[in-house]
Specification:
The structure is a homodimer of 333-residue chains. Chain A is mainly alpha-helical. Helices cover 73% and strands 1% of the residues of chain A. In chain A, a hairpin with a 2-residue loop joins strand 1 (101-102) and strand 2 (105-106).
C-alpha cells in the first residue's frame, strides 16, 4: 500500500483530534511571526510556514500535554515555540546546505537572500524564547534552551563530520540526536512538564520523542538512497553528493573491502564524483545489505518509541502516538 | 588629545574596578563556549572572543548590578549571556555583510566558512539562553528575550532599508535601537533587575543603556565617514560602499538640491559608484554641515545617558558610567 493510503492515517487522526488546538496554535504562530517594523520577516516566515509542513512537532507537544490531562493553554505557546525553533533551523540549514528547494518550493535563501534567511531565523529563535518565557515555567525554559544548544551542536558536528570516512555510528547518532531528536524529545517532554505530569510520565514522553526523532531521521537518510518508496519527492542522492556520512554510508564503509574503500574515499572523502557513482554506491549497499540493516535500525528505534509509552495513561491519544511511531518507519516498509 | 591618552580612561577605570568580576565572567565564557561533541565551536568562538573586544556590554551589566548593591553571582551569568548574544550577532552580521575583517583579524566566515559562522552563532544564542535560565529570574528572561527579538528585527530593517533613499531619521533610530541600543539597554536593565533595585532605578538603567547605545552607534556611523579622528582603524567608506542609510547620509539627502539628489540616488540607491564618489559625498556632507549635525546628535544622546543616571546611588560607579557616556562621543570630539 502506498504512503498516501495508509501511512498517513495516524498523523491525520492526531490532526483531527487536535484540530481546534492546532487552529489556536496557527493563530498564535501568525500573530507572533509579525513584525511591526520589518515586513520582510513575516514574508519570509510565511513562505516557509504556510508551505504546508506537517506541523508534526507542535502536534507532539499538544498531544503530550493533553494525554497528561492538561487543561490550560500554555501548551499552545509551547507548540508555537517548537514550530518557530524548527522553522528557524530550516532557514539556517538551507543557508548552510545552499539548498534550492524545501517543501516543494524554492528556498527563502533563493527567493530573497542568505541575509534574510539568517536574520529571520534569528528573529524566530528570539520569538520562540519570548513565547516560552510567557509560560512562566523555568523547567520548560531549561528543557527548550538545552534543546536549542543540542540542535546547533549537532549541526556543527554534522558539518565537521562531512567527508570524514572515520565517522562511526556513535557520531552519527550524536548528529541525529542533535539535528532531529533533540527537538522531538523537547516537544514531548515540555508537554508533559507543562501538564505537571508525574516524573515517570515526563521521562516516558522524553524517551518517546527521542526514539521517534531518531527513527524519523534514519528513515529520512535511508530515503535519500531511495529506500523502498520514492514517492515523497525527495531528491535521491542529495546526501551522497554532499558527502554526508549517514547510516547507509557508514554501514557500507564498515563492510567495504580495499577496492570499495577506495571508491568511498574518492566519492565521499575527496568529493570527486563521476556519472554512475550513485548507482555503484547503491549496488554496494544492496550487495552488503546496508539498506535493509539501516531499515532494521529505524524499526528498532520505532519499537523503542512505542515501548516508551507504557507508563502513560491508556487513552486514544497514546494509541495514536504509538501508531505515529509505526508511521514514520512505514515510509520504508 | 588622542583617543589613547584620555578617552579610554573611563573604560579602563571601570575595567580596573571590576577586574575580579570580569575574571570570573571570562572563566564562565570559556567554560560555556566549550562543546563536548563539536570542537569547531570553541575554535570559532575563541577566534572572535579572544581577539580583544572591549567587553563593554558585560561590564555594563556588572556595573549596573554592583551600583544597585547586588552581592550574589548571577550577574556573572548575565554578563556572559550578554557577551554571547553580542558575539552571536557579530558572527551572523559578518555573514550578512560578507565582511572580511573584524577586530583587526580575518572574520570567522573567511577563516572557516559561512556555515560555521551561522551554526556557531546559533549555538552561542542557545548557550546565552541556558545561562539566563540559570538565574531563575523570569523578568530577566523577559528583558533579554525581548532584546534578542529587537536585535534581529533591527538587522532585518537595516537590510531592507539599505539603498532606500526614503529612509528617514525615525527609521534610522529604529535600526540603531535594534542593532545596538537594545543590547546595551538590556545589559544595564538586567543588572538592576537581578539586584532587585527599585523600579525607578531599573528604568534609569534601561534609559541610560538605551541612550548610550544610540550615542555609540551614531558615533560609529559618523566615523565611517571619517569623523574627526580616524585612529580607530575603521575602514572609512564601508557603509557608503554598502549603500547603508546612516545618519550622515540621511541628513545629506534631506538637504540635497536636485543635482545632489541625483548623485545620492546613483551611488546609494542604484549602487553605481565610481572613483571619487566618496570624496564628493564627504564634500557635500561638509558643505551642508551634515557631519557636525550628526556629531551634535551623538552628543545629545550622550547627555541624555548622563542625565538618566540621576536616580541611581551617588557612588564612584555612577560617575564612571557618566564618564563612559562622555567617552563614547569623545571619539569624534
Amino acid at each position: 500500500m502506498s504512503l498516501d493510503e495508509t501511512a498517513r492515517k495516524p498523523h491525520d487522526a492526531l490532526a483531527a483530534l487536535l484540530a481546534d488546538e492546532m487552529t489556536a496554535v496557527n493563530a498564535l504562530i501568525r500573530a507572533r511571526m509579525a513584525s511591526e517594523h520589518a515586513p520582510r520577516i513575516p514574508e519570509v516566515t510565511a513562505h516557509l510556514i504556510e508551505a504546508g509542513g506537517k506541523r508534526l512537532r507542535p502536534m507532539l507537544t499538544l498531544a503530550a500535554a493533553r494525554l497528561c490531562g492538561y487543561e490550560g493553554d500554555h501548551h499552545h505557546r509551547l507548540a508555537a515555540t517548537v514550530e518557530f525553533i524548527h522553522t528557524a533551523t530550516l532557514l539556517h540549514d538551507d543557508v548552510v546546505d545552499e539548498s534550492r528547494q524545501r517543501r516543494g518550493r524554492p528556498t527563502a535563501n533563493l527567493l530573497w537572500d542568505n541575509q534574510s534567511s539568517v536574520l529571520v531565523g534569528d528573529y524566530l529563535f528570539a520569538r520562540s524564547f519570548q513565547l516560552m518565557v510567557e509560560t512562566g515555567s523555568l523547567r520548560v525554559l531549561d528543557i527548550l534552551s538545552n534543546a536549542a544548544a543540542t540542535i546547533a551542536e549537532g549541526e556543527v558536528l554534522q558539518l565537521t563530520a562531512a567527508h570524514d570516512l572515520a565517522t562511526d555510528e556513535e557520531t552519527y547518532l550524536k548528529v541525529v540526536r542533535g539535528k532531529t531528536a533533540a527537538l522531538f524529545a523537547a516537544a514531548t517532554e515540555a508537554g508533559g512538564v507543562i501538564a505537571a505530569a508525574p516524573e515517570e510520565q515526563v521521562t516516558a514522553l522524553r524517551d518517546y520523542g527521542d526514539a521517534l526523532g531518531i527513527a524519523f531521521q534514519i528513515v529520512d537518510d535511508l530515503l535519500d538512497y531511495g529506500g523502498v518508496s520514492t514517492t515523497l519527492g525527495k531528491n535521491v542522492g542529495d546526501d551522497f553528493r554532499e558527502g554526508k556520512l549517514t547510516m547507509p554510508v557508514i554501514k557500507a564503509v564498515a563492510t567495504a573491502d580495499a577496492a570499495e574503500r577506495a571508491f568511498w574515499s574518492r566519492v565521499i572523502e575527496k568529493g570527486r564524483q563521476e556519472a554512475g557513482d550513485l548507482d555503484h554506491a547503491l549496488a554496494l549497499m544492496t550487495r552488503h545489505g546496508t539498506l535493509s540493516a539501516t531499515r532494521d535500525a529505524a524499526l528498532g528505534w520505532a519499537a523503542r518509541a512505542k515501548a516508551a509509552l507504557a507508563p502513560l495513561p491508556d487513552a486514544p491519544l497514546r494509541a495514536m502516538l504509538s501508531d505515529l511511531a509505526a508511521y514514520v518507519v512505514a515510509r520504508v516498509n
